[in-house]
Amino acid sequence: MAYQDIFRSHDLVRRGSIEELCGHRDRALELYGRAFDLLAEAEKAYKLAVGSPKGSVYLEFLRDVRFGRPEAESVRTEIDSALWRHILVASNLMSLMDEEERKKFQQQLERGEAPAATVPNIDATVTRLYAEARTIFRRGLVNAFSRLSDIHKTNDGFKLGPRAIMRGIVTWNPYLSFSLSTYRDGELADIDRVFHVLDGRPSPGYSEGISGLIREGMRNVRGEDEKTTAESDYIAAKWHKSGTLHLRFLRDDLRQAANRLIAEHYGAALSGRHASANHQGSTP
Length: 284
Known about the structure:
β5 and β6 (245-249) form a beta hairpin. Mean pLDDT is 79; it is low at 270-284. This protein is of the alpha+beta class and 284 residues long. 57% of the residues lie in helices and 9% in strands. α2 (15-49) runs antiparallel to α3 (69-90), α6 crosses α7 and α6 (119-146) packs across α9. A 4-stranded antiparallel β-sheet has the order 1-6-5-4, with helices on one face. A two-stranded antiparallel ribbon has the order 2-3.
């Protein structure tokens, strides 16, 4: 499936599938609720049996378990967070999200602020993300490539050339050889993700794609004169002791597609600024 089709498609998450998943979710909540009620009743009976109806007597393996409403709500939050993650990964929407959208979503889940994983809520969220997928992906593409050191920006944006350099992403230790910065490898993964999506392929996992190939190559290097290159279907990479990673983009068609989206992004941004300026100068 081409990336243009992904932006238009809402069939990757069918409503029937959402309804089935939410049905399992509702059943799980019902069973956990009944289990909590039964465990609470069992605890009361146990205390009566040992002559401590009001005491803090617990079976050893249940000593740290509580069965009240806060615990039941924690179960619901945990189930809903897991279901939201599953929906977004299964729908391929996660691969279209940029870092900004992913962080916002992850923070909502971590704070327990995500809406309940019900059919209407999931359907509304998936619909919104598909409607905004092109804008989100385009924004993530621009953010990913704008950090590269040899891209010359102007007020109207920039163009992605056939080569680029990432600085400060490689560490050289004469005893441990090369390593890829864990603080920067997410930037490289975002670049790789862009090419995969533009080619209609799913985003690579942590151990896949150019990042995985580079890490594997670095593990096999013991001396500074050994091979320090890796190549995927989209990117040829060469790393240096200076901390730089030199990238060569192998698919010119995908690079041009990226440039069209970059131009589209800056065109929209410029149009927005011009419209704002015109609005500010007009009389209500």
